[in-house]
Amino acid sequence: MAPTVPTVKLNNGREMPLVGFGLWKVNNDTCADQVYNAIKTGYRLFDGACDYGNEVESGQGVKRAIDEGIVKREDLFIVSKLWNSFHDKEHVKPILKKQLADWGLDYFDLYIIHFPIALKYVDPSVRYPPGFFYEDNKLVFSKASLEETYHAMEECYEEGLMKSFGISNYVGSLVLDVERYAKHLPQTLQIEHHPYLVQQDLVDLCKSRGIAVTAYSSFGPSSFLELDMKRAQDTPLLLEHADIKSIADKHNKTPAQVLLRWATQRGVAVIPKSNNPTRLAQNLDVCSFDLTKEEIEKISSMDKDLRFNSPPNYGIDIPIYA
């Protein structure tokens, strides 16, 4: 029997599962099956994005589960993201509708501004997903402000194309800036968050504003090894860290479960992924045990302010965290 996953109440009254399935780096040829199997395992939140290039296949997995009566649409919490190339206000709604059509949905439960970066528009018929570069490995920026993009998101929210909306990869100063112009505060902020990058001040800032925080890359460098990122290759793996393994042994859990529980016990949602049925179930079952206050503090003390998902680490000259 699948574990009961707690939810976090968003500032618009809706409930979001505290544990979900992340679709970043899920291969197209396995994606539909992975989503379907994750639903069968008990996952209800799926975190996708235009940039992941697998929204059609993700939607196929969802449709199969719904058609078989495993879930109803309203049981699921589907998340997607607005890519940088579509920040101009006239492009926000059309690309949102394209993404909904790719998923086979009428609405997203949560739609997020992926990065605080506005790039020149690339027509989906030319290249999709467009990636960072406009052409010939050249970065070309749009003149759209974050405020312009945000207001376009609010219009889509009020129209019902998304039930909630949020931001991602924003730093504290940008969260404070959103307050200056928002008609509706964002419901969530999604950030890189693991013991090497705790960002406690940012988490606390969001908590004081009623903005829920979702962590991505909860296992730190492990998420980036397959991308051949040198910074990840040079960093000791959290999953093999002696302190994490010791805490895991004490609770008869895996290191991955401890890392996820460290986040969820502090009210931060997580979106791990796995293609292994055992680990898939284990990752979902991370709210059935509690770490001690001392264990949480010990894990948090590993903070190195070490960020992996920064554009310059991919050779992209947009130092948004400088």
From TrEMBL:
Name its pathway: Carbohydrate metabolism; D-xylose degradation
Q: Which GO terms describe its molecular function?
A: D-xylose reductase (NADPH) activity
Residue ranges of the TM segments: none
Q: GO terms for biological process?
A: D-xylose catabolic process
List residue numbers at the site (Lowers pKa of active site Tyr): K81
UniProt EC number: 1.1.1.307
Q: Which residues bind substrate?
A: H114
The cross-references to InterPro entries, in alphabetical order and at most eight, read: AKR, AKR2D, Aldo/ket_reductase_CS, NAD(P)_OxRdtase_dom_sf, NADP_OxRdtase_dom
Against Pfam families, the record matches this protein to:
Aldo_ket_red
Residues of the active site: Y52
Query: Keyword annotations for this protein?
Result: Carbohydrate metabolism, NAD, Oxidoreductase, Xylose metabolism
> Sorted alphabetically, which CDD domains does this protein's record hold?
AKR_AKR2D1
Q: Does the keyword Glycoprotein apply?
A: no
Q: Where is the NADP-dependent oxidoreductase domain?
A: 20-303
Family per similarity comment? Belongs to the aldo/keto reductase family.
The identity of this protein, by name, is D-xylose reductase
Q: Which organism is it from?
A: Saxophila tyrrhenica
- List the gene name: xyl1
